[in-house]
Amino acid sequence: MYKIVKAECLADKIYLMDVEAPRVARACQPGEFVIVKIDEVGERIPLTICDFDRAKGLVTIVFQTVGASTLRMAELKAGDYFQDFVGPLGQPSEFVKEDIEEVKKRKYLFVAGGVGSAPVYPQVKWMREHGIDVDVIEGSKTKDLLILEDELRAAAGNLYVTTDDGSYERKGMVTEVIKDLVENQGRKYDVCVAIGPMIMMKFVCKLTKELGIPTIVSLNPIMVDGTGMCGACRVTVGGEVKFACVDGPEFDGHLVDFDQAMKRQQMYKTEEGRAALKLQE
Ligand code: FES
């Protein structure tokens, strides 16, 4: 059993929990995910790791309520337990595995959209811990849905916040900020890491392709059970079939077939869709 030591509502339908899971905390790296299960009958829910404290044995997860299981999860309080908290799973972010001197030579731009700020945060924090200054763009629909702003501000070299409705900081999409930084302010980036809603990642990739900036995306949003069994996260990357939960969740965004992945994501939202997809497999 895994004890929840902190449970907090960050914004409408978005929750943060610190969970006692020393083995996961010891081993996890930015980019990886865990699978949580409330009890015997609960669904398996894959969630990207938002933060970890190896000394205290804590792992931080952030989730948005989207269905029955996450609604049940949101009701849990500090002192409650998860039956399962399995991980770390998936592949760590590429830069974690690389020679640090090579990573230091590059200028990174992180783009976080909505709940995507949660998986972006440990990556930006990792960069800070290794003395690397990165630029971060954080976008949300509205001010009330913006999460982890203070944490990102503390870890980033520069943080640019934008809201779709202009209720806070600048108004507009994250793509407009990228354009502004590159075209008007003359910033040069060697790598962009974009994590957020599929539609956001699709348009960020379209733009960064035009701008010639290699881009990594995390396909965490399309995972359903995180086991390689359900087929929900099947995606074509550079003409090859991949599974986000096994081969990813991070991929070269310029090679991802977003339209196909989004269609599957829609189908998996309904029971009938899931059945139809299974028949095709
Ligand atoms: Fe089910 Fe990857 S999430 S196969």
Automatic annotation (TrEMBL):
Gene3D superfamilies: Nucleotide-binding domain of ferredoxin-NADP reductase (FNR) module, Translation factors. InterPro entries: Cyt_c3_hydrogenase_gsu, Dihydroorotate_DH_Fe-S-bd, FNR_nucleotide-bd, OxRdtase_FAD/NAD-bd, PyrK_electron_transfer, Riboflavin_synthase-like_b-brl. It comes from the Bacteria. Residues 110-206 form the Oxidoreductase FAD/NAD(P)-binding domain. Coiled coil: none annotated. Residues 220-256 form the Dihydroorotate dehydrogenase electron transfer subunit iron-sulphur cluster binding domain. This is Sulfide/dihydroorotate dehydrogenase-like FAD/NAD-binding protein. It comes from Enterocloster alcoholdehydrogenati. The lineage of its organism: Bacteria, Bacillati, Bacillota, Clostridia, Lachnospirales.
